[in-house]
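#structure-requests
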Amino acid sequence: MINNYYRQIDIDRFNYIISCFPDNILTILDVGAWDTQFKGIMEMNGYKVTSLDINPQETLMIKADITALPFKDNSFDLVTALETLEHLDSISLAHARRELSRVSSKYIIISVPYDEMPLGTGHKQRFSAKRFYCLFPNNIHTDYFGWRASYKGIRRQLCFIDKRLAYLFNMIFGVKKSIVSNWIIGIFQLKED
């Protein structure tokens, strides 16, 4: 199911990530799935997916914390964590990296806001390209996706008042400001085939 509140750029990003999936995967875990939007798009593309979130928005999702995943070692061929790691404090991020590596037998795909300044609402981590590459040892593909206008914090302040105001501000003034890359996406290979 595609929720109607998703922007087309988000749906395009999800489809782009799916197009980057390696051929040799059968089992997928989507961590930080929230409302299962990405899971729905993966399933529309023929993949079977297990999804979890610490605050699930859907009843069929597993409630779990990224710092203590309830699966055995090497349970999934591919583990995704899209726009999740930026919400973690430094200690939780270290535990999450270990857990993602533990439950994946082959690949991890991570997507985070790129060089976000100032940090978005609820974000505790900022990822430069260098910091992103250091998340896992074997980065086999990195790309940047989407563009957003840089507002010097105006949109963030509007988010605190009402997210609809921030969205409206983005639609009206976004093209008149400097443009920066929005997301950095990386595929990390854990084990050679």
